Amino acid sequence: MLSVSTLEKDKQKYHHGDLRNTLIQIGTEMLIESGADELSLRKIAQRAGVSHNAPYQHFADKNALLAAIAEEGFRLLGDAIDEALQNSQTLSPHARLLAVSRAYVAFALQYPTHLQLMFGAFASETYPSLANRSHQTLAKLMSVVAELEQAGQLAENPIYDVGMVVWIALHGLSVILNAGKIPDYIRQDRTPEILVNQFIDMICKGLLK
Amino acid sequence: MLSVSTLEKDKQKYHHGDLRNTLIQIGTEMLIESGADELSLRKIAQRAGVSHNAPYQHFADKNALLAAIAEEGFRLLGDAIDEALQNSQTLSPHARLLAVSRAYVAFALQYPTHLQLMFGAFASETYPSLANRSHQTLAKLMSVVAELEQAGQLAENPIYDVGMVVWIALHGLSVILNAGKIPDYIRQDRTPEILVNQFIDMICKGLLK
DNA sequence: TTCTAATGTTGACACTGACAACATCCATTA
DNA sequence: TAATGGATGTTGTCAGTGTCAACATTAGAA
After folding, report:
1. Which of A36, A105, A208, B110 has its C-alpha lying 20 to 30 A from A95's C-alpha?
2. Is the dihedral of CA A147, A152, A158, A161 positive or negative?
3. Quick one: average pLDDT of B5-19?
4. Any bridge partners for residue B154, and if so which?
């Protein structure tokens, strides 16, 4: 092999420098591009310009890298929610809840494979930082619920339970939309946004008399 | 190889007879036993006592077999719901809704990998019979909602939308429970059954004043 | 009975995750 | 400054996987 001039911009050092984060980033990209089935450690390593075994210095096994990618997914989801909160500052708590809800489902539809990874069965004890990230995401939902509470609009339920119900509804809707499991005769012409608005509103107001 | 006496009980015929269903059944068992990662066409074929390529006579590829296993999962879920309906015949529509809800979540917790498969991204056009099965499952939920309607207990929402909201909530709760994503400080000591009862009740009554 | 389509087998191939042994490099310390 | 050990990356290898192609066996229709 020829030795590479140190003046080259992308000079190839023996040590990558930040391989761990690079692998997570590339994995995230490939997951978005080609889906979870096409994700292989070796392809990720290759695209990072590193040997097929280098990832094992930073991740115990493939699952550990997937968990890190899932964690990155929660970060992205958190950003999307934050953005919705930013853009709805002047609105009522209820309108903000709907804005956040739409952002959640929009994220789910944009990154379906990510969502599946994020809610896969990664043991919290094995991947505590992943668990933390998911709790942080939930906290963002809770903050909107807290606004409703402060506005005196909440029925008499534990506030945390209200947040959980919202999360559950958003996630259920996301999964069922992604799986294409809403029959046409029910869905009719409604966009995801409209479905979110209507379904979350129904939950806010209650299904029964 | 020695020729096998035709008197042997499990004589090995060249043609299996009902390989397609056998593969689905074995796949279902292995999915329950060892999870989706351990599922391989070759292991399933081996356990069926058949060569590693025999499955390709009945399934275009691995994904097609997975779709069939997912379909079997909807059948099992349907059975669980039917059983809950049987056992609650004397109860009120609302109590029957809760019974079905508990059955749904109980199934999800018992067969977590199945649930993930069932709501994976199988294109409805490619696997129409899987789509049918999922619609049949939804119909069972709808029947309980119809009871509520006939009892005059439904708020003014399209009945199909009510059914969808119930499904969404049940599925969201199932996934989030399976993923272990309810923080301890929220979950406290509540069993899944109690969580189902409380959360579904909250949705029935509404979150807001 | 004959013949053809359905069903099952054998063999091969590229790809994958993982392990072990080795190479390179960086940072600390003497 | 020099060396030395731990962190990082590489090469080689292995069993297991999904899939394709070619072939073998069989059941059922003609």
Report:
1. A208
2. negative
3. 56
4. A208
Using the predicted structure, report yes or no on whether residue B4 has a pLDDT greater than 80.
no
Query: Which of B164, B182, B185 is the best mutation test for A, with the most CBs of A within 10 A?
Result: B164
User: How many domains in chain B?
Assistant: 2
pLDDT of A17 > 50? The answer is yes
Smallest CA-to-CA distance from A114 within A157, A160, A66 is with A66
Identity of the amino acid at B51? S
Alpha-carbon distance of B15 to A103, in angstroms, equals 54
Give the closest residue to B202 by CA, choosing from A207, A153, A102, A100. A207
**Element (H or E) spanning B15, and its range?**
none
Same domain, A82 and A29: no
Helix (H, G, I), strand (E, B) or coil at A208: strand
Cα A81 to Cα A72: distance, rounded to the nearest angstrom: 14
pLDDT in tens, A123-159: 999 999 999 999 999 999 999 999 999 999 999 999 9
Question: Which nucleotide is the nearest neighbour of A1, by CA and C1'?
Answer: D10
Residue B5 pLDDT exceeds 50:
no
Nearest nt to the CA of A42 via C1' is C16
**Residue A171's closest chain B neighbor by CA?**
B172
The answer on B107 and B178 residing in a single domain is yes
